[in-house]
Design brief:
This protein has 336 residues and is an alpha+beta fold. It has twelve helices and nine strands. The protein has two domains: 92 residues; 220 residues, BirA Bifunctional Protein, domain 2. The chain binds adenosine-5'-[phenylalaninyl-phosphate] (FA5).
Length: 336
């Protein structure tokens, strides 16, 4: 019995030494496995109980249980303190400094031309104009012939473009929608379109090979230049500002008679200087007649302008090439 007590004291001593050296809860687990768990030294000791005489068994059993309890206490105290250290380390490594500034994510933004497009669309819709579309890759006849350009007329040279073949070209003006509408529908009509146009152009700050046009027309009874001027004034006041005045000057376009160019002026832009915005006029009677619309009953006006002109004026953008370059430093200046 004496040697048994010594053996158990040795166990406790060895456990204390091992526990002193333990640095992690895993080390504690290993010690626990060695002494207390299945196949551990103290469980094996219990197996020896059958070899003892019946009168020695209770004392031996009590000794084993006492030793197990002592070892278990030693392990549990150390395990608790190591677990606390491990938790502190984990919390420290995962610490979030809530006072740090957040990570900024970029938010999407409509291109300045898309913003202008939406504003123009909303304005003309509110004024009773219906939005329609026609192809960018257009037939020669809609872009020129049906718009009263006589064959080989020099006005076509002003709008040289990219030809696919003798019949198809990239449209030079959104006015090309007129013939497509007149073929299908009868007056009264109040329509506008907006889209890409293309010209074989020497590119500079105010001219591009690819730009956008707004084109609108109205056909009804008793339509005159007065209606055109009122409509255009309302349009530019809504889009550019209430202080904007509109001026007409005679100009030539084969599809209008009389034809005008129109300019706007506001004390906000270039000290009130007149700035040309686009072309307009009363739809040529030849066009009305060619689509079976009686010019003695119906008349109409049409106007067109470059979309880019609007943000250029409002924001003082002096180079239209920037609209197509997708330079974020430029685009980010116009949050939608
Ligand atoms: C026309 O294109 C006529 N279709 C407008 C019109 C419609 C007149 C209805 C009468 C009735 P013009 O070639 O002037 O007209 O072009 C109209 C506008 O498009 C110009 O004022 C300008 O703002 C813009 N524009 C023309 N060419 C370019 C270009 N190369 N780059 C950028 N904008 C241009």
């Amino acid at each position: 019995m004496h040697s048994t007590t010594e053996r158990f004291s040795q166990y406790i001593h060895d456990v204390k030494c091992a526990v002193d050296k333990a640095e992690t809860t895993c080390d504690i687990k290993k010690i626990e496995d060695l002494y207390l768990n299945k196949n551990g030294l103290l469980i094996n000791e219990m197996k020896n109980i059958s070899k003892l005489s019946p009168e020695d068994r209770p004392a031996f059993g009590a000794e084993v249980n006492k030793t197990k309890a002592i070892i278990s206490d030693i392990l549990s105290v150390k395990r608790d303190s190591l677990a606390r250290i491990e938790l502190d380390k984990k919390l420290e490594s995962e610490r979030v400094d809530i006072t740090l500034p957040g990570i900024k994510t970029d938010s999407g933004n409509y291109h300045i031309l898309e913003q202008t497009f939406r504003q123009v669309k909303r304005t003309l819709n509110n004024m009773g104009f219906e939005y329609a579309e026609s192809p960018e890759l257009e037939e020669f006849k809609y872009n020129f012939s049906m718009l009263n350009y006589p064959p080989n007329h020099p006005a076509m040279d002003e709008q040289d473009t990219f030809y696919i073949d003798n019949n198809y070209l990239l449209r030079t003006q959104c006015t090309s929608i007129q013939g497509r509408i007149f073929e299908e529908r009868k007056p009264p009509l109040k329509i506008f379109t907006l889209g890409k146009t293309f010209r074989n152009e020497a590119v500079d700050r105010t001219h591009s090979h690819t730009f956008h046009q707004i084109d609108a027309f109205l056909i009804d009874k008793d339509i005159s230049l007065a209606n055109l001027k009122y409509t255009l004034s309302t349009f530019v006041k809504n889009v550019i500002g209430d202080d904007v005045k509109v001026r007409f000057r005679p100009d030539f376009f084969p599809f209008v008679e009389p034809g005008v160019d129109y300019a706007i002026s506001s004390p906000r832009f270039f000290n009130g200087k007149w700035l040309e915005l686009g072309g307009a006029g009363l739809i040529h009677p030849n066009i009305l007649r060619s689509f079976g619309i009686n010019p003695d009953v119906y008349s109409g006006f049409a106007f067109g302008l470059g979309l880019e002109r609007i943000p250029m004026l409002i924001h003082g953008i002096d180079d239209l090439r920037q609209f197509l370059e997708n330079d974020m430093r430029f685009l980010e200046q116009f949050p939608s």
